[in-house]
Design goal:
alpha/beta; Rossmann fold; five-stranded parallel beta sheet; 8 helices; 5 strands; 59% helix
């Protein structure tokens, strides 16, 4: 029983440190950049242009989650109809490009075919230095396509060259991915809260 009690105390301490670290790093992020991202996303939706999202590993999961929340959840409470696609969603295409060309080209080749003037790309990368992220970001810069980058650690290439860079300086993949996921929900809920339609104007599903 004593061993179990000590382990529980260790967990409680770990839990407190994890949550504090997460909160501290969130508080360090520039609200101005997050607001700028919300404004660009909203503008893109209102102009009926497309939003694309991409990432690797855990960031790929967050990219796909963007589609779920912005495509369905946003239209549930507002009259906004986001046209949003994850460049991670077509696994058959990703495997074909990776196998026959290079994994470093999986996002860039899709961007070349899909993206048009006025569209935007949201990139999620803990290191900010993944080759496929760098390549598609270079393409967007060349085509003057606006980008929003979410990065952790030192931020790398993504932090340096995104039009809007939201960087959390945290050397922990779990907390970094938590932050990027939280900010995805925050952006969607802020846009929804400030654009509620008449049917949902009194909804209390959001903070404001």
């Amino acid at each position: 029983m004593k061993k179990s009690s000590n382990k529980k105390k260790l967990f409680q301490s770990f839990f407190g440190l994890y949550v504090k670290n997460l909160q501290d790093k969130l508080n360090d992020i520039s609200c101005d950049e997050i607001f700028n991202a919300a404004e660009l996303i909203l503008k893109t939706i209102k102009l009926n242009k497309s939003i694309y999202v991409c990432g690797n590993g855990g960031s790929a999961a967050i990219a796909d989650h963007y589609v779920c929340d912005f495509f369905k959840q946003l239209s549930k409470y507002t009259n906004l109809k986001a046209k949003i696609k994850s460049l991670n969603s077509d696994q058959y295409l990703i495997s074909a490009i990776s196998n026959d060309i290079s994994y470093s080209e999986v996002f860039k080749i899709q961007a070349e075919r899909y993206m048009k003037k006025g569209d935007i790309l949201i990139l999620i990368s803990s290191s900010g230095n993944s080759e496929n992220i760098k390549n598609v970001l270079k393409f967007c810069k060349k085509q003057k396509i606006k980008t929003i980058g979410f990065s952790n650690f030192s931020g790398g290439f993504l932090n340096k060259y995104s039009d809007i860079s939201i960087h959390s300086k945290i050397n922990n993949y779990g907390i970094g991915e938590d932050i990027n996921h939280i900010l995805m929900h925050l952006l969607m809920q802020f846009i929804a809260t400030t654009n509620l339609n008449k049917i949902n104007k009194n909804k209390k599903d959001f903070i404001l």
